[in-house]
Amino acid sequence: MDRTSVISDLNPIFQDVLDLPDLRLEPGSNAQSVEGWDSLAHVNLVVAIEKHYRIKFALGELQTLKNVGEMADLIKKKLGKQ
Amino acid sequence: MNEYRWADLALGKSARFDAVVTEDRMRQFAQLSGDVNPLHLDDEFARARGFPSRVAFGLLTSSFYSTLVGVYLPGRWALLHGLDIDFKALAFVGERLTIVGEIAHMSDAYRRIDLKASIVNSLGKTVSKATIRVGVHEP
Q1: Cβ B107–A46 below 8 Å, yes or no?
Q2: First vs last C-alpha separation in chain B
Q3: Among the four A33, A39, B39, B50, which has the fewest Cβ within 10 Å?
Q4: Is A31 helix (H, G, I), strand (E, B) or coil?
């Protein structure tokens, strides 16, 4: 699974959690550029992604992420290890 | 009040307690919420609509999910993030309800648990089911 496929996969999760049916994620999308992506939404997103992929994040891994593209890379890496 | 910290929690950990839908709680909930629908406050009206008596406010019985989280599991360090509730049966004034919850998911990164919870009446009938999302914000 490449970065673009992961981002396509994440799109409906973000649409659902943020209640933004028209949202189109891009690699550079982040909490500043996406409406409603506040701290509680962020927790909801992380948990939804963990459940979707059956993976677990550590807090340290998430704190360094700058955007959706980097999140997709981290997911790719975790899926590769399974 | 329980004071479970993240390290004390595990998948499958559960809690339960009983609560009664008292007259006083019904009156106070009507006052608090402003919901003065006669189905909840007027026996005659409720019977005319085919119910045995006044129907308990759904959100009054669901308020016990708040108690479950804030007092029992995890208790003191809880912060409610969200909940989804499905009502399954009516509850009536005077009924004793049992509220149960069990940890179904744990997310270490932000210390968030999901509880599968339900409220059951004294006949064993499920009044509602809920998925509750709770942060554990210990100091």
Answers
A1: yes
A2: 17
A3: B50
A4: coil
Q: What CATH code is assigned to A3-81?
A: 1.10.1200.10
Mutation target among B11, B80, B107 for the A interface, most CBs of A within 10 A:
B107
Q: What is the ipTM of this complex?
A: 0.73
- Per the DSSP assignment, residues forming a β-bridge with B79 are B135
How do the residues of chain B divide into helix, strand and coil, expressed in percent and rounded to 5? 30, 40, 35
> What is the domain partition of chain A in residue ranges?
3-81
Considering the domain delimited by B7-136, tell me its CATH architecture: Roll (3.10)
Tens of pLDDT, residue by residue, chain A (82 residues):
789 999 999 999 999 999 999 999 999 999 999 999 998 999 999 999 999 999 999 989 998 999 999 999 999 999 987 6
The verdict on a CB contact (< 8 Å) between A59 and B107 is no
The answer to whether the beta carbons of residues A26 and A34 sit under 8 Å apart is no
